[in-house]
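Working notes for the structural subgroup meeting. M.R. asked for a predicted model of this chain before we commit to crystallization trials. I am recording the input and output together here so anyone reviewing the notebook later can reproduce the run.

Input as submitted:
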Amino acid sequence: MDPQYSAQDIVRCDLCETPVPPMCCDICHINLCKACVGEHLSDDSKDHKVVPFHKRGSTINYPKCQKHSNKICELQCKHCNIPICASCVSSGDHEHHKKVDILKILTKKKELIEKDLQELQKLIRPKFQKAASEIPAQKAGVKQHSLKLTAALNKQGEALHKEINNLIQRKQSEIEEMNEQHLAAITTQEDAINKAIHEIKQVIQDLQKLLDSDDVCLVSEYTSRNEEFRSLPAQFQVHLPTFSPQEINREQLYQQLGSLSQLLITYPLTDEGARTIEEHGGLKKTPGDVSSPPARLLSDKLLSNSPSILNYIQTEFGGLNNPLYNVSCLSDEEIWTCGDNKIMKLYNLKGELLNSIQTKSGNTPREIAVTRTGGLVYADNNDRSINLVSGTQIQTLISLREWRPLGLCSTSSGDLLVIMNNDGNKPTKVVRYSGSTEKQTIQWDDQGNPLYSTGNIKYLSENRNLDICVADWEAYAVVVVSVAGKLRFRYTGPPSTPRESFRPYGITTDSQANILTSYSANNCIHIINLDGHFLRFIHNCDLQYPWGLCVDSQDNLFVAENNTGKVKKIMYYQ
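Returned structure, recorded in token form:
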């Protein structure tokens, strides 16, 4: 049997379906038996060229000139980017324009198609197929881990007997919910991969058709899609939950049954912006390679009924003429401070001054923050800049034009978040920077309304779940958005508190994703959870006009008192 006829779907005449037609029209690209050749040539509305089947594709199908209908185009005008015929050239319309043989363009395009086809077949498709083949093992791993958690839970449940059967069921439900979330995340990943494989398959088919085509217009219109397939869809990372049993206490059965850590699935941050998927207990699948501390139950039982002052530092700030505004932890033993002058000061917990840095411009720093690598960044509102202090050198990282920075923070991924006001009438916005490159702007809610007020007192912090938390004094609220910039909630004080009486100043977050914000008028700190629910006050530590806040690695709170110039270290967890 002739190899060209050995395919499962035999070649047939396109007019009468006679098998194995010996002829074809190289212009119309249809197969013809000998009996149908005459019928096909009788259509004189267009040109034909019937050739033996084995010589198909040997005829160049030049495009017809749009300006001279009886001419074919054998050249391409590089300047006008259109096919042209000999009459077009002689008319002088393309004089001094560079002209290229249209066959060269056809050859280059086919070379590109061949290259893309090879990459799709040999590299891209196998990569997606490999990722798809790993999905069943991931699903099996979810089930195995779920069984381990269940076994540990049941072992602890046997010790508690009948009194805790209902509580065991509650914990089991949490495992099953996280199991479903994990499987849903994997299924979403699987769907994305399978969709891409389907699209790749279709592209390969289309490219194979193009390689067999001599239609210059069709081939020349080809645009490569390989770039969008070179990378797999965003791969999530999983922080599997663990079960930690506790000793039995009949009065606290649910807590002592054991804590189940949150299921954290993290995605890399893309240029189009991060996507945030709600998880159990308000935690999220979050973009970025984020290392999270061991999770504890977010409950009132963890918060001390009597927060206590562990230490305080008397800085060189204080008083009406030199108030203290901000504090930022360099380590658990050292803190940076700044107030209403041009000097930023580093203290240890003994109150000893370790370093003093003057701002580059001589202006008062609006806000300070310590980066992940231990550098100090500060916002210069008057100079419209963000600056990095490294040793004795100060480098301007970001220079703004019509915007003035108000607050900033360093994120877990190493980015900088800056909240800024506009000199004109544009609404306040939060901008994410990687180095000096702007990556994301957060300014509007889903209804097109500004997220933030236009007031000048604003501070911000990134939460453990990558929410962006802004203390907006003028708006009487803490405004919290997801990493994708979607409004999650506005906290305006406890339910019993009139909205107008709550005006937050400093803000920070801790390892349990709790949000702490200072309320100077009432000399207290509000603690709310990651979903905006009020937990408790810190108000019995003789606070005097608390302003700036930061938390160390042990969840000890540092409070900068605006009037006294003291920084107080407070333990608020048991």
